[in-house]
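Task: sequence design from structure.
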């Protein structure tokens, strides 16, 4: 009997060290979770609103003022898990604390996570960023930040549906002046936080008696009004996710390839210039 030996045995450790493996696993996990949520949603259209209330709203209401620290903890986790959009967390600030409180905590949370993400990449450098954000997404952001600086950062903060965390990581890697970066983040976070606080408050204000305490929230989820709230929550959530996905597709398949191609063209041109100068005449000098 002839034994066949595999000349290229599978190296499990090498595969696990490859960041592409983790991106694929993360994608599959997100896809599986999405399918499960979709199935659950088809069986119970209130499930998404229930998850938001039971997993965040009620825990925050349970611990009172300390709930603010829990909110910051959730914002921190969200900033490290890029697929979770910060918009969903900001939306809940209006539901929990109304317009003034929701706006203030939205701004504070954005400043905190923006400074944290900036510091992570400033100290850890590109390797950490590459593990968090694909190169295809990050490199064009580098180009835009280098070209437009803090004005680009401000505009991405101010527009409600623009990327937040990738900008923070890219800014830290490029060592953008921290003072200018934070000014752009603080000022840009104001209209963004107001928008989501208003949206969240508008959703809960349609309830005849908006719940505040844990018991009130638990009772609210058993009423007919909760069905209407859940429908509204679903509509707002779908609009946000669809717009985010549309903007991501435009960035990933149109803007990103254009900027990468433009960057490569500029690098090729710069690389050829010294050779051309050597072959040609020496540049003229002026007295």
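Answer:
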């Amino acid at each position: 009997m002839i034994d066949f030996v595999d000349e290229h045995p599978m190296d499990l450790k090498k595969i696990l060290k490859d960041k592409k493996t983790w991106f694929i696993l993360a994608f599959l996990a997100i896809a599986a979770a999405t399918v499960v949520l979709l199935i659950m949603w088809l069986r119970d259209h209130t499930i998404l609103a229930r998850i938001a209330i039971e997993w965040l709203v009620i825990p925050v209401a349970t611990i009172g003022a300390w709930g603010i620290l829990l909110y910051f903890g959730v914002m921190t986790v969200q900033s490290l898990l890029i697929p979770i959009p910060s918009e969903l967390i900001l939306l809940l600030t209006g539901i929990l604390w109304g317009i003034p409180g929701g706006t203030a905590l939205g701004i504070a949370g954005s400043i905190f996570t923006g400074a944290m993400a900036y510091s992570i990449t400033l100290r850890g450098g590109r390797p950490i960023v590459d593990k968090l954000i694909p190169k295809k997404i990050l490199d064009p952001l580098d180009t835009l930040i280098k070209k437009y600086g803090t004005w680009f950062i401000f505009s991405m903060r101010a527009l409600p549906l623009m990327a937040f965390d990738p900008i923070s990581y890219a800014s830290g890697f490029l060592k953008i002046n921290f003072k200018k970066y934070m000014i752009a983040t603080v000022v840009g976070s104001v209209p963004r936080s107001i928008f989501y606080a208003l949206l969240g408050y508008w959703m809960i204000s349609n309830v005849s008696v908006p719940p505040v305490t844990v018991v009130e929230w638990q009772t609210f989820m058993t009423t007919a009004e909760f069905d209407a709230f859940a429908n509204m929550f679903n509509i707002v959530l779908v609009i946000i996710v669809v717009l985010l996905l549309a903007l991501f597709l435009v960035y990933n398949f149109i803007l990103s390839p254009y900027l990468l191609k433009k960057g490569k063209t500029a690098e090729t041109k710069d690389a050829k210039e010294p050779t051309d100068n050597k072959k040609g005449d020496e540049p003229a000098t002026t007295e």
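The longest helix spans residues 224-279.
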